[in-house]
Amino acid sequence: MRIVTLTQESKQNLLEDLLKRSPNNYGAYEEKVAAIVDDVRKRKNEAVFEYTEKFDHAKIDASNIKVTKEELEEAYTQVDPELIEVIRKALVNIRSYHEKQKRTSWFDSKEDGTLLGQKITPLARVGVYVPGGKAVYPSSVLMNIVPAKVAGVGKIIMTTPCNAEGKVNPTTLVAANEAGADEVYKVGGAQAIAALAFGTESIEKVDKIVGPGNIYVALAKKAVYGFVNIDSIAGPSEILVLADETANPRYVAADLLSQAEHDEMASAILITTSMELAKKVSEEVDGFVEVLSRKDIITKSLEQFGYILVAETMQDAIDAANEIASEHLEIVTANPFEVMTRIRNAGAIFIGEYSSEPLGDYFAGPNHVLPTNGTSRFFSPLNVDDFVKKSSIVYYSREALEAVHEDIEKFAKAEQLTAHANSIHVRFE
Predict the structure, then answer these.
(1) Full-prediction pTM beyond 0.85?
(2) Does 399 participate in catalysis according to the annotation?
(3) What share of the chain is helix, strand, coil (3-state, %, to 5)?
(4) Where does the chain bind NAD(+) (predicted)?
(5) Is 6 helix (H, G, I), strand (E, B) or coil?
(6) Per-residue pLDDT for the chain (429 aa), expressed as one digit of tens each?
(7) Which of 98, 178, 261, 328 is catalytic?
(8) 248 among the known binding-site residues?
């Protein structure tokens, strides 16, 4: 991996480099995606079936687009029973963590005759997109469905690509069933997002779409936002390790590569105060790359977006980490909890040398659907709040309104909204 001294210039170059990975920079694909979305909106099932045959080489129609009970039962016979048990253990942790995020409605009444409050209502229908391209992600199935179930969403509809024979990956199906998906459809890509957003003869329109996907899926979610809500427009995966001379270079190298293997656009960055650690990590990375199965992907990822930055002080390192605002941040220092208190921007923070990032991907419980491309400066991980909506509650008695009606009328008239003022005035004529 390249080793660079952390300066204002090198940091700025890095930030500009990372921005190239944003889905917002892929305008060349937007026209093609918009055409697919518009076509599905107009022709519904017919368009979905045509695009599925064109892109996934599968003949799907109204009779077989939905995964059946028999297909689900067959999937259980094809998945290692030990893996099913692991999925169930992970579900316990994920569900337990998200249960702690639940909020309740609240109401505040006063003796003057006013009552104000907030009513929490789960969304009626949510669409979960699960990719099926370069890898299979049953962990993402769990992370997207569980908070929706905990929130009390009425119906969870999942879409995922099928193979040329019209079959969905059995591990994906098992994970969907264990997590609580109500319906699963064999549709992928931008056409799946459009089907969820606008509805077809087979797939109900949903209120919100969540889940990761390739650039076509990301841009399709961007295109339908406003017609439905979405979780985010996610970019490629990324990890930043913040370390000092006490870190184990072999552990750090392994953790960096855990994200570099996702795809060629993934980012892996180490910021350290130790040049000795930087050199050792670089050597360990070279050794690991030679024996890992996704060598080609890792190599391209590191060539484009892999960095080791050597900072003069830990405060300089922390400042850089806050500016990069990484999706995953590992802190491997002598006092990791103290460093954690100075981190403002990160999707998920992993503390100490035994809190490796994949722990969060699969098992610990916090959600692994995280803000990317620096958006952790203002976005949060997927959570229960993403699957509810809040309504304001206002009640005033006649006496309570009478005490303030002249103030309200004066405010409305100041904005030249006389009908607003009259709406209050008529009650006290």
Answers:
(1) yes
(2) no
(3) 50, 15, 35
(4) 129, 191, 214
(5) coil
(6) 899 888 888 888 888 878 777 766 667 788 999 999 999 999 999 999 999 999 999 999 999 999 999 999 999 999 999 999 999 999 999 999 999 999 999 999 999 999 999 999 999 999 999 988 556 789 999 999 999 999 999 999 999 999 999 999 999 999 999 999 999 999 999 999 999 999 999 999 999 999 988 889 989 999 999 999 999 887 888 999 999 999 999 999 999 999 999 888 889 999 999 999 999 999 999 999 999 989 999 999 999 999 999 999 999 999 999 999 999 999 999 999 999 999 999 999 999 999 999 999 999 999 999 999 899 999 999 999 999 999 999 999 999 999 999 999 999 999 999 999 999 999 999
(7) 328
(8) no
Place of tokens 């290692």: 80
Sole residue written with tokens 């908070």 = 147
The verdict on whether residue 57 carries a ligand-binding annotation is no
Tokens of 191: 């056409």
Evaluate the CA torsion angle 347, 126, 94, 160 in order and state its sign: negative
Among 178, 327, 330, 409, the one annotated catalytic: 327
270: Cβ contacts below 8 Å, ≥ 6 apart: 1, 240, 241, 243, 252, 256, 278, 281, 307, 308, 309
* Contact of 201 with 62, CB cutoff 8 Å: yes
Domains and CATH numbers, the chain: 3-22+235-365 (3.40.50.1980), 25-230 (3.40.50.1980), 397-428 (no CATH)
**425 assigned to active site:** no
d(CA 40, CA 55): 14
- Region for residue 180 given its phi and psi (left: phi exceeds 0; alpha: psi -120 to 50; beta: otherwise): left
Q: How many CB atoms lie within 10 A of CB 305?
A: 21
The Cα 158–Cα 182 span in angstroms is 8
Tokens for 234, please give them. 């996610």
| 64 in a known ligand binding site | no
Known binder of ligand: residue 129? yes
Residue 98 annotated as lining a ligand binding site: no
Token output for 273: 């105060």
Give CA separation, 426 vs 76, 397, 402, 403, 423, in Å.
Answer: 67, 15, 11, 15, 6
From CA 160, how far away is CA 130, in angstroms rounded?
5
Both structure tokens of 378: 């203002």
Name the residue among 238, 200, 213, 236 with its Cα closest to residue 325.
Answer: 238
SS3 for 199?
coil
